Amino acid sequence: AAILLKLGGYGLIRISPMLNPHPPNLMFPIMILALWGILMTSSICLRQTDLKALIAYSSVSHMGLVTAAIIVQTPWSLTGAMILMIAHGLTSSALFALANTNYERTHTRTLLLVRGLQLAFPLMSTWWLLTNLTNMAMPPTINLLGELFIITTLFNWSTPTIIITGIGTLITATYSLYMFLMTQRGSISTQFRLLTPTHTREHLTLTLHLLPLGLLIMKPAIISGLFT
């Protein structure tokens, strides 16, 4: 999720200039599929019962925004695509790491069975909250900057796209909160009374994911290519 999806985005960025200016009969079908994919994969996340499947579908939803931005081929859209790819690479990897810490202790990925883990792992619950807020592009994260660049570019390209991107952003916030509430809140199952404590290496792994996201917002030109 953190590497392979971004290799696909990098390939699109390298190949798209060869087709510039894009012929309309090639541009519009890809754009429609990318925007429709944002809504479909986000909606699928709302009915997922498997934690890893939910995180994987959310990655596809974010990459739909990146694909649409790359197709537009403007400096703002490519900048937004680059920022969102790097931000999502760190965020998605952190979510998978968190899902793995849950699985190692509960041996299940079903959301209904892993509720109430905040009572057992309060510090890990803090990591869940921060990562989910980053996934839903809350300020002042770098994810918000990338999405603003892309949504603004798509709005300039075609005004009705603001409806699709707006609904997609709303659904993203919904399933991010759904994922946090389903895994952390509620009463813990009686079969999970004796759980292995979290390790320092796990907290270090999550720190190394979220710390760059916090630092990059102070100088986003590093990953946006806008050094002037």
Automatic annotation (TrEMBL):
- Example GO biological process: electron transport coupled proton transport
Reaction catalysed by this chain? Answer: a ubiquinone + NADH + 5 H(+)(in) = a ubiquinol + NAD(+) + 4 H(+)(out)
UniProt-annotated location(s) = Mitochondrion membrane
Q: Where are the transmembrane segments?
A: 26-46, 53-72, 78-99, 111-130, 162-183, 204-227
Q: Name one Pfam family in it.
A: Proton_antipo_M
Q: Name one GO cellular component term.
A: mitochondrial membrane
Q: Which InterPro entries match?
A: NADH_UbQ_OxRdtase, ND/Mrp_TM
List UniProt keywords, sorted A-Z. Answer: Electron transport, Membrane, Mitochondrion, NAD, Respiratory chain, Translocase, Transmembrane, Transmembrane helix, Transport, Ubiquinone
The entry assigns this protein to a family as follows: Belongs to the complex I subunit 4 family.
What protein name applies here? NADH-ubiquinone oxidoreductase chain 4
Q: Which gene encodes it?
A: nd4
